[in-house]
Amino acid sequence: MKLSTFLTSAAALALGTTAALAQNDCAAGSTIEDGVLTIATGNPAYYPWVMNDDPASKEGFEAAVAHAVANAMGFDDDQVVWTRSSFDQAIQPGAKNYDFNLQQFSITEARDEVIDFSLPYYSAAAAVLSRQPTADAGATNTVDSLKGLKWGAAASTTAPAMIENLIGPEDSLLLYDDSADVVEAMKANQIDASLFDLPTALYLSAVTLDDGVLIGQFPPEMSENPDQFGLVMEEGSALKACVDAAITTLTDDGTLAALEAEWLAEATGVPVIE
Amino acid sequence: MRRRSNIIAGVSTTLVVLAIVTLVPLAPGWAAVKKSFFNAEVFAQTFPRLVQAFLWDIAIFLWSVPLITVIALAIALARDTKNPALFPLKLFGILYTDIFRGIPVILVVYLIGFGIPGLGLPRPWNSPYIWGTVALVLTYSAYVAEIFRSGIESIHDSQRAAAASLGLSQSDTMRFVVLPQAIRRVVPANMNMLIALQKDVALLSFIGPVEVLRQAGVFKSLLANFTPYVGAALIFLSVTIPATRYADYLIARQRRERS
């Protein structure tokens, strides 16, 4: 235990303060700046995870979750500072400029060796995004039908591996930097279909593509390794226990489920892939 | 004297290498950096796939080079034309080199790689391999054209005059007198362009092809480890270092011939 943490706890005990302050103990002295929680997200951050690229507004699922976690850790909203980071910055070795980072990072075993993940705050279904002409040409929600399509994906996500494992397309994949480029390639008819987490796929099909369709989804419980999103922290982060406790609280009291219902569109209309 | 300087060079090199080998691991973050960038296990796991992906880089390089050579030579000749009736051609050459030397390669790759297929070309004519190659060829032709032009201009005017006095036409003068010397003279400079092109082929990964840089990026994301990038760098070096040495050799030989 750091001296400052010890002194804070000792002072809290001596004063016999209330539970609200006691919550703060687990994070005290462990954040990069005392009394402030620095949270990173992508640049830009995408709908519906962060609305209008403005996480401090608390609008959007991840913006809301981040603030809920911060509150549960004992930080007020005005003690939260937002910063930006790329995926690479999140996993490179060395000191970080944030306390935790959230931008739909899927928890995987290999990644967990280099960085720390919190408990998952969301389990994502994977959805197949395509365009109306492809659906008209006979693409349906069966793996056999999907095999014959030309696939593309965002390279830094778990999508390329999931496409290979779940679908195993006949033709080789084309890979892009981010979802915007994947959509561009789909518009240019260079690829037929791509795999995204369901909320992103719903957004892309409704807003970015004129003729977008969701051919089907792989529900989280269907794949062997469900795509679960976790908060990323530096390997060996002193905050991990505190963050995990906050997420457990938010899961148990239904806050996460409520935020999911508020920000992530209903998924019931998308057929399951056979 | 020669031997003494060799000894001094050997000792100082050894000292520098020793200092790096002993001091770098003393840095507080070395263990983490070693695990992320020099991970033997990850290297062994990913290297074969990286080499496989590099075959795409080589293929794209190989079919780009002849196209670049032809277009660059045509542009260089267009810029060199002295016939007033052909001024539009000269103007085109000037505009072409100005535009394509002035735009970053990656932007040309993006704009042409996504833009032209977006016009609605049918498969396979909208392939990112085709339009990515077009983007590389357009950009590199502009640079190489300027190199060819410098070569052409380095041939003294007296040679053209001599050729004319022998009764050679302007085009024959260019073909048999100027170009053979000019092209040979700029070979070392063009070798440098080839080396740069071999690296820039990796930019095509932005529009879809899974070549070595993209494959390394996929491994990086899956394994949260940067070692695949080190592997990719080694693969590039295995091609570019011999090419660089060869360019140096050509330059040295040229210097000997001229002196």
Describe this structure in words.
The complex is a heterodimer of chains A (274) and B (259). With 274 residues, chain A is of the alpha/beta class. Chain A has helices at residues 3-15, 19-24, 61-72, 87-91, 109-112, 132-136, 143-147, 159-167, 179-187, 198-208, 240-252, 255-263; strands at 37-41, 80-84, 100-101, 115-117, 122-124, 126-131, 151-154, 174-176, 193-197, 212-218, 227-229, 232-234. Chain A folds into three domains: 1-30; 36-123 and 232-263, Periplasmic binding protein-like II (D-Maltodextrin-Binding Protein, domain 2); 126-218, Periplasmic binding protein-like II (D-Maltodextrin-Binding Protein, domain 2, 3-Layer(aba) Sandwich), CATH 3.40.190.10. In chain A, 37% of the residues lie in helices and 18% in strands. In chain A, the strands form four sheets. Chain A has a five-stranded mixed beta sheet with strand order 8-7-9-6-10. Chain A has a three-stranded parallel beta sheet with strand order 2-1-3, covered by helices on one side. Chain A is elongated, with a radius of gyration of 20 Å. The relative contact order of chain A is 0.17. Chain B is mainly alpha-helical and 259 residues long. Chain B has a single domain, classed as MetI-like (MetI-like fold).
Question: How would you concisely characterize the structure shown here?
Answer:
The complex is a heterodimer of chains A (274) and B (259). Chain A is α/β, with parallel strands linked by helices and 274 residues long. Chain A contains twelve helices and twelve strands.
* H/E topology pattern of chain A: HHEHEHEHEEEHHEHEHEHEEEHH
- The assigned structural class of chain B equals mainly alpha
How many helical elements of chain A?
A: 12
What are the low-pLDDT stretches of chain A, counting only 5+ consecutive residues below 50?
10-23
**Helices and strands of chain A: which structural class?**
alpha/beta
- Shape annotation of chain B: flat
Can you write the helix and strand succession of chain B as a string? HHHHHHHHHHH
Share of residues in helices of chain A: 25-40%
CATH topology of chain B: MetI-like fold
CATH architecture of chain B: Orthogonal Bundle
